[in-house]
Amino acid sequence: MERDRESIGLTAESQTLLSDIEARGWFQEGADIARFCLAYAVRAGVSDGSTTGTETRWAAGNFDKTGEIRALLAGLYPECETPVRLMEYLVNVGLRMVGERLLDVAVGPADLME
Amino acid sequence: MLTLRRLEVEGFGPFADRQTLDFPSSTGVTVIYGENMRGKTTLLNAIRYAFFGTALGRGARTRRLHTISNRDRAAAGIYGFEVSLTFVYEGDEYELSRTCEPKVDSPSRDTDYSQRALLRRGNAVLGPHEREKALELIFPNEVSRFFLFDGELLQEYEELLINESEAGHRISEAIERILGVPILKRARAHLKHLSEDADKQAAREALKYKDTEVLGSALQQATDQREAHQEEIQRLQEVLADLMAQRSELELYLQANEKLSALLQERDNAKDRVARIEVEDKRHRADLQRAMADAWRALVRERVRDARLRAHESVREQVEVLETRFRRIAIEAGHCPICDQDVPNDVRDRLSGTIPGEDNDGSGAEDVSHVMSRASALDHFRDSDNASEVRGIWKAINGLALERVTLQEKIADLTAALSDADPLRLRESNATFGEIVEKISVVKRGLEGERARVDELDQNIQRLKRKLEEASKAGLREGQRQARILREATDVLSRAVETYKADLRTRVESTASELFLAMTTEERDYAGLSINEAYGLTIRHQDGRAEEARSAGAEHVVALALMGALQRNAPLRGPIVMDSPFGRLDERHTENVVKALPKLADQVILLVYEAEVGRTLMRELLGSSLLREYELERQSARRTIVREVR
């Protein structure tokens, strides 16, 4: 059985995207952006996967203090045995997807939720 | 009687080179034609500058000296100007010249200039003190408005009809000044003072005799008290005059800067709103950040709902599979693995009937546990959809951003429009104006109180004096007689002032009516003008009623009638110099006014542009009263010369 990760990291590209979104002032902190992007990817039906070349940003326990995301992923990705790795993957994919949407300057936070 | 003879200007406004205008000595009208921008108002200002050392701009604002210098000469490095005015007053010929010279090579402010004035009477040059005294006597600044005016100044006379109007009060005082009322008022005040001195003397005399000592002491005390209160009245009057002057000055400044003040207020309001927008934006952004922290739930909500439904369906299915498996064991083994009891045959038969045809006996218990934990995990998801809240907040933020951009553009425009303004002074003036109005009200209340106290003391003094007269010895009677004469003389003069004022008003009303009827086009409907206490004039219809609403043109004609009436009834008489006074008049009124000009004053100098009245028509209307015509001829945008036409 594959060993799960203990922290969530970002690729260099994701880090840039996160900084760009952070600069818009829509979110209070980076972790809020990451959770939002994770959910964005989940909603888009992104399958299980993993990311390489990341640099640690958040300890898994801090990222999901209540365990709600872990439970959510357990419910939505029942075959997944490494939820933190999945979280990291979804965060990075989600950041890319949101970043692409935001290339359109007219898109605001409410548009991302539609 | 003051009559202008010659005006010479050099470097003043568009008059770069020395220009001379000679005014004929006979009674009649001199007309100076000039298109816009040629220097008509500048000539009016040149006369004003010669007498008072100041020039006025729009809204009666004092013009900066630096802006008066001819711009063509200034471009060549020559600054400053000179105005020379020759006039006759009470038979003596005077020459008044005023020069404004730069103190530095490239002046930019008024303080960079020095001014020199020279007044010659006959062959004698008057010293500075004598010069100012003579000018104050010949042409006091306070009454200049009745001699030198334009259409804008004529509009102010409507104020005379408004009670409690400060501007109206100022004009009324100026009217009384030109009519000579202050001389009588000063005489009355002097007699009153002498009468009060006599009262004090009577009290001092009474103290010398035992019989009258007590009365004398009471009288002395009362006169001392009255004097103290009068001194206080004097002090308060000085304070009030000072405050009124400050208020008038501020009023003029604020009136002249009314538009700028409104723009400044508008900019302040816009800045305040931008500041409030910043606060609102900050609050909305905090709300947005709070909402966005939870927004991830809304994104996955639908997926969770679908997954939850599927998970519960799976749980139900897997439970059914498990139940079937246990029934099958019970049927086959005759023993229930759940409750560990044997199963009778009839029950086994009945259970056989509940077994579905196809049975998946596969992973039973393991699958149930898996799907149940999956369903449980999904059940624990806290369902929340704050998309509409985020949308609402974002809409508000966008609305504020749009409003902020609009306001910032407006602020930039207003700042550009206010580039010549002094916002600090405007704000301070507005605040100071309010404070002064409040102080005036306090001082007026104080004055009322003091005057009431003086009236009380006056009555007491009269009572004491009557008693003293009854008890007096022969030695006292002479002093008392003098005091009584002075008091009675004061009363006579008081009544005389009122009678004279009433008589003046009647005369002004009568002359103004005559002039008005000569100038109005409604001479059949109107009976004349009625004058009020403040010298305000109302048009009286033939039916005896006052015309409440009157047009701007009618207002102008009434004001011109007042000008003429004051000229004809004032001890101080002089020329009327009018700058483009026909702006609000129609053709017929204009013609009537031109025809009436010789009746307004002995010497009338009319500055006019030909579109108002053409030369042919002017000659026809004025006939032999038209003494001389000049035209202001354009040399360039910055240069005008004066040419005699006829």
Question: How can the largest sheet of chain A be summarized?
Answer: 2 strands, antiparallel
Question: Tell me, what is the CATH class of the domain at 2-184 and 500-644 in chain B?
Answer: Alpha Beta
Indicate the structural class of chain A.
Answer: mainly alpha
Stretches of chain A where pLDDT is under 50 for at least 5 consecutive residues are none
Q: What is the overall silhouette of chain A?
A: globular
What is the chain-wise order of helices and strands of chain A? EHHEHHHH
CATH topology-level fold name of the domain at 2-184 and 500-644 in chain B: Rossmann fold
H/I helix tally of chain A: 6
Average pLDDT metric of chain B:
86
How do you describe this structure in short?
The complex is a heterodimer of chains A (114) and B (646). Chain A has 114 residues and is mainly alpha-helical.
Describe this structure in words.
- The complex is a heterodimer of chains A (114) and B (646).
- Chain A has helices at residues 12-23, 30-43, 60-63, 68-76, 83-101, 109-112; strands at 7-10, 55-59.
- Chain A has 114 residues and is mainly alpha-helical.
- Chain A has one domain.
- The longest helix of chain A has 19 residues, at 83-101.
- In chain A, 42% of the residues are buried.
- Chain B has 646 residues and is an alpha/beta fold.
- Among the domains of chain B are: 2-184 and 500-644, P-loop containing nucleotide triphosphate hydrolases (Rossmann fold), CATH 3.40.50.300; 295-385.
- Chain B contains 17 helices and 16 strands.
- In chain B, strands 2-1-4-5-6-7 form a 6-stranded antiparallel beta sheet, covered by helices on one side.
- The mean pLDDT of chain B is 86.
- The chains are: A mainly alpha (114), B alpha/beta (646).
- The interface between A and B is medium-sized, with 25 and 33 residues.
